[in-house]
Design brief:
Rossmann fold, seven-stranded mixed sheet, binds glutamic acid
């Protein structure tokens, strides 16, 4: 990245999160004291995680758990394993969780965890030891009524099972509600695996209605083919959309006539990447983002749509399945160009919403059918979309600012009513 670009806009995710908060706080005319409280994380834990590797050597990894705001309930948010994880990134992700939970109005604050590691370089045994030690290190601050982790980038239901088991060993009994996104055999919820993508599907349908675009026959490009992206591609395909391009960290594939997302996912599972999928042309991540299409789904990492490429985005709707894929500078450009952005804290909130349902089911020991989970999810996502859209219209702002106004108002109100201790 050139320094010229860096001087134009910051790519520090925490500064971006604060700028997004400020925009809403201005509209809500929040007083200075409340702003200062809501802008910074309540708690930040940095841990060293020693792991005995398979060859006998010891490696030490750095991990984090950040709790941003606890006014509306326990902290909630995923754990990410990625070589580029930083404390500032985890702080941003934790604060996005606060606003996300408030946008869909579930009784949680925001939290996030991360370990700076490339999980693809670790054996299954190394990954298990890393996870159990990380869980032990953050154990003092997590728990069903304090902070409930879940999967995020490169963590899975198996990761959650190890964390649940580790914490349960300390407690001397099975503690189902300490993490969500667990396997179905271990107190997981039906529909959780697909929930992030389903939320993206529901909000994309609603955005298409606003923009008077038919999702049937719409052209869709999906950047990132993990849990969110691959399942969103399948669900939008089931809605009759044509998935013309998809990509992962190794490269992308393109077919104007449509890609079968399930076959593409099988190819990725067999070969480790989408690259080389039959019947498709190769395409770079950057080319994918700039394709002419109806719906672009960034479903990978932060800072995907920036001032460098925002002018070249040719989608009508951007559905943010990832967290933080668009910078504030790019947001401005997209808004000016009339592109409808479904902001991350709304678009990908289906995951944490069904995590909430999972936690409720665990605490009650009473489990729901998949139909019940999905219909509650649809009700929650539709209500949130309507509220955000109404706020955007009322304040004459884009959907992101509308979502922040909705969320910040709820958290600010809870913080104010509770009062400052002591
Ligand atoms: N990691 C997901 C997110 O960013 C899910 C968090 C959760 O389920 O708690 O929203």
């Amino acid at each position: 990245m050139s320094t010229a670009v860096l001087t134009k806009e910051t790519l520090n995710p925490f500064e971006i999160a604060q700028a997004q908060f400020d925009a809403a706080a201005d509209y809500l005319m929040l007083d200075e004291g409340l702003r200062t409280i809501l802008k910074r994380p309540k708690r930040q834990l940095i841990v060293s995680i020693p792991v005995r590797m398979d060859d006998g050597r010891i490696k030490v990894f750095e991990g984090y758990r950040v709790q941003h705001n606890l006014s509306r309930g326990p902290a909630k948010g995923g754990i990410r394993y990625h070589p580029d994880v930083t404390l500032d990134e985890v702080k941003a992700l934790a604060s996005w969780m606060t606003w996300k939970c408030a946008t869909v109005n579930i009784p949680y604050g925001g939290g996030k965890g991360g370990v700076r590691v490339d999980p693809k370089q670790l054996s299954l045994g190394e990954l298990e030891r890393l996870t159990r030690r990380y869980a032990t290190e953050i154990a003092p601050i997590i728990g069903p009524d304090r902070d409930i982790p879940a999967p995020d980038v490169y963590t899975t239901p198996q990761t959650m099972a190890w964390i649940m088991d580790t914490i349960s060993m300390f407690h001397g009994h099975t503690e189902l509600g300490v993490v969500t996104g667990k396997p179905l055999s271990l107190g997981g919820s039906k529909g959780r695996h697909e929930a992030t993508a389903r939320g993206c599907q529901y909000t994309t349908r609603a955005a298409c209605a606003v923009k008077r675009i038919s999702l049937k026959g719409a052209k869709v490009a999906v950047q990132g083919f993990g849990n969110a992206g691959s399942i969103a591609a399948r669900l939008l395909h089931e809605d009759g959309a044509t998935v013309i391009a998809a990509s992962d960290s190794k490269g992308g594939i393109y077919n104007e006539n449509g890609i079968d997302p399930e076959a593409a996912l099988r190819h990725k599972e067999e070969t480790g990447s989408l690259v080389g999928f039959r019947g498709c042309d190769a395409i770079s991540n950057q080319e994918l983002l700039e394709l002419r299409c109806d719906v672009l789904v960034p479903a990978a990492l932060e800072n995907t749509i920036t001032l460098e490429n925002a002018e070249h985005i040719r989608a009508k709707i951007v559905a943010e399945a990832a967290n933080g894929p668009t910078t504030p500078g790019a947001d401005r450009v997209l808004r000016e160009r009339g592109i409808f952005v479904i902001p991350d804290i709304l678009c990908n909130a289906g995951g944490v919403t069904v995590s909430y349902f999972e936690w409720v089911q665990d605490l009650y020991g009473f489990f729901w059918t998949e139909h019940e989970v999905n219909s509650y999810l649809e009700r929650t996502m539709s209500a949130a979309f309507r509220e955000v859209h109404a706020a955007a219209e009322k304040y004459r702002v884009d959907m992101r600012t509308g979502a922040y106004i909705t969320a910040v108002a709820r958290v600010a109100e809870a913080t104010k009513v509770r009062g400052i201790f002591p």
